[in-house]
Amino acid sequence: MSRAPWRVILTGVVLTGAVAAGCLTACAAPSSPSSTPLDSRREGTTMLPTARRNPADGPIRSDLDPLLRRFPALGRPTAAHWESGTYGDDRVPGPSTYWIDAVVALDPDTAATLRKAPGLAPATLPALSPQLVGQVPTGASWLTSQGLRQTLAKGSWSCEAFLSATTDVLVLRCTGDR
Which of 59, 67, 109, 178 is deepest in the core (most CB within 10 A)? Predict the structure, then answer.
């Protein structure tokens, strides 16, 4: 009439394991597609959400002061065209991470100094907005290096930097907080 004690224990372990596995599966299962950010969805795959690069507000800027405050190694540029925006979801409160993309016409002395950065090697420009692409010299070849990036990035800013090998133009793609 009575069950063997080992059989009761074994049944309890199996049931507990099945319940735990069910809970883990339910907790790990992705939520409905409507709760996943649009830019993290790919048909047939599951991806982690990625940061969204919000577009710049307004037209391309040409004022130099904001750039020079953040990137003093630019020296005294003769001109600049740039845009900025934030990463992430504007609906989420908290501090923002900013981005700045710029095409800067350097004075010849600053360009010569930056060409002395250690480890310069040929590079391909990253994608830029259509407005900035129009400011990039056609046919230019580009150089970059860790040394060049470190020279230009200051404070909380990190930069990708591309110096034209044939003109005094620098392309920056930087990320930071204010």
Answer: 67
